[in-house]
Task: structure prediction
Amino acid sequence: MSSLREQRRYEIIEAAMKVFGEHGFYQGKVGEIAKEAGIGKGTVYEYFGSKKEIFQQMLMYMFETYVEGGKKAVIGEKAIRDKLIVLLDYHYAFVNQYADVIERTFFHFENIVKDIKPEIAQNKRKIFDFVLEIITEGIETGELRSNLDKETASIIILGIVNSSHLKRIFIKADSINKIDSRAVIDMVLLGMGR
Result:
């Protein structure tokens, strides 16, 4: 953190993730966020103009945290297969850690996030570009077919990554059963046909 102010801002955002994760946007209160952050309610307003702004900045923080964490997770891996397995494992861990806030925020509140749609689109593009880099590297190293459509392959990988937590979202299971990332990636790389 470059400053105490920046540190405090992140503490408020982390507190907001917990409060919004437990209560949702409408039931979550700024006073609860302040209490969770260990500061006064007035102090929160020194950093954010409204509950809506806290919510919006929390979403942006989660996107940025996800991308940075994903890049750090795969950095030590050499083989594309291993990078994809680590990425799937990272996504599983991230979703499991933030499942409540994701369920109560990412799929709701269209009217609240409309002000930051360009930033959300930009962050989604960063995630896509990150996967595209992995696919491109795989083609360049010969681990993936040279005639592979990189963008389609990236979309397929993102679809698999994003669907790895659907049991929790759709079935409302209390915890996410960890999928076998190696088996999933091998199905993609080797195919499901005979």
About this structure: The domain at 51-190 is CATH 1.10.357.10 (Tetracycline Repressor; domain 2).
